[in-house]
Amino acid sequence: MSGWAIFGQAVLAVVGGGIVGLVFRGLDRKIAARMQARIGPPLRQPFLDLGKLLVKETVIPKTAVAWVFSAMPFLAVLASFTALLYLPLGPFRPILEGYGDAIVVLYLLAVPALAMALGGFASGSPLGVVGAQRELVMLMSYEFPLAVVLVAVAWRLSAQGIAPAFSLGTIAQNPLWPWVGPLGVIGLVVLLVTMLVVTPAELAKIPFDIPEAETEIAGGLMVEYSGTYLALFYLADVVRTLVMAGLVVAIFIPYGIAGVLGLSGAAAAAVDFLFWLFKLFVVMVVAVTTVRVGMARLKVDQVARGFWLWGTAASLAGLLLLALDKVVMG
Amino acid sequence: MGLSAFKRALWVFHVATGSCNGCDIEIVAALTPRYDVERFGIRLVGTPRHADVLLVTGPVTRMMAERLKRIYEQTPDPKAVVVVGGCGSTSGVFYESYNVVGPVDRIIPVDVYVPGCPPRPEAIIDGVVKAVAKLEKLGAKV
């Protein structure tokens, strides 16, 4: 693919990703409201919020380290959108395929969290510093299970003789379910559940909204951000939700329905793309919306211990089961 | 975007300046499923930096006056101030009390008064929506 073609697709994906992300956030808020027997905000509320934030004054506090404080929102947005370009978009291969693999996506997912933490440290507010420290503790606890999930899947793929095993495009093209035996299926289910638990933590949503926790540390690492910068973080968060859901879909449920419906060509691509969006939506509702309505905020030590003990144990168990399955089934 | 941006996306910060908790409970009531202000895009936020509207309750005690001023200055423009309750509007039963320097409009400029002891959630929502008119005027200038 030529550079310009990639550039064109990237622009399309970034604009589309932003719009779809905001619509999904609207759906998330609407569904959460319905679960609480409320009417809830209109679907276009995230667009309205974003528009309003862009009109507002952007304050840079006197006590802040100005350049870090102002650079971090842009870094967060850039990393989130770049991660989107590494995802298989339903029937389409990743736009930046060949320029990096699943490991890059892991790093790109960590960058917005780091950017938010640095922004919090640079904001000059004690609440921001507390929030940033919490964000870093969370980052250190959920990254390991997440990495193990990816490594387990990639290892099983390479054991099957498929390369490049760490490319998300390859992972999405070769779902593991049909190849593994009963032990492997249990292992994959364990990995899927681990991934679904990591998702709200990665996105800092209830019960893992510890770094922001507006009732105790007044918005934590976001405390001094306002106007355009806040809008950028909002956008990054929205896109990161898409990326996390896209990662779950790419690894565990990359199936399309065009084959079942007997479609081909452009129609198949369109139907599969819509079905992919639907799968993202389902993952978001299951892993984010339902959980955040049903639970209260956890304490940071509970999260750290939970991910280090149970998260790590679960992901390693999944890896072990996959390995055992390979040994037993040959 | 400037004119209508605030109409349906108002973020509200609640400042209690020595209130008895009556008005504060009514503000919380406005968030409950019964009144559900989120359907109008109104959201309670945790920091003045995110806020468009300051909801001030209470007669403003001597200690809170300085803090109230600071919170007002921390709120990014354009912003509006809504006073909720009789105490904030007139100092109420604490009028000329030795530890009260209020009412609120002696400390910061106020746009909307919502009287009542405490006002009903409907009245609070109405007050916040009236603040939109001011914000739109300011938003047009930005």
Question: SSE layout and pairings?
Answer:
The complex is a heterodimer of chains A (330) and B (142).
Chain A lengths: L2 H33 L9 H11 L10 H20 L16 H21 L3 H34 L8 H6 L8 H21 L11 H4 L9 H26 L5 H4 L3 H30 L5 H30 L1
Chain B lengths: L10 E6 L5 H10 L11 E2 L8 E5 L4 H13 L5 E5 L1 H5 L21 E3 L6 H21 L1
Parallel strand pairs in B: 1-2, 1-3, 3-4, 4-5
Strand content of chain A: under 5%
Tally the structural domains of chain A: 1
Average of the residue pLDDT scores of chain B: 84
**Backbone shape of chain B:** globular
How many domains is the backbone of chain B divided into?
1
The assigned CATH architecture of chain B is 3-Layer(aba) Sandwich
What share of the residues of chain A lie within helices? over 70%
What's the number of extended β-strand segments of chain B? 5
Query: What is the strand content of chain B?
Result: 5-15%
Say what oligomer this is.
heterodimer
Topology order of chain A in helix (H) and strand (E) letters: HHHHHHHHHHHH
- Structural category of chain A is mainly alpha
Cα gyration radius of chain B (Å): 14 Å
Give the helix/strand class of chain B: alpha/beta
Largest interface: A-B, 34 and 25 residues
Structure, explained:
- The complex is a heterodimer of chains A (about 325) and B (about 140).
- Chain A has about 325 residues and is an all-alpha fold.
- Chain A has helices at about 5-35, 45-55, 65-85, 100-120, 125-160, 170-175, 180-200, 215, 225-250, 260, 265-295, 300-330.
- Chain A has one domain.
- The model of chain A has no long low-confidence stretch (mean pLDDT about 85).
- Chain B has one domain: Rossmann fold (3-Layer(aba) Sandwich), CATH 3.40.50.
- Chain B is built from 4 helices and 5 strands; from the N terminus they run βαββαβαβα.
- Chain B has a 5-stranded parallel beta sheet with strand order 2-1-3-4-5, sandwiched between helices.
- The chains are: A mainly alpha (about 325), B alpha/beta (about 140).
- The interface of A and B includes residues 40, 51, 215, 218 and 223 of A.
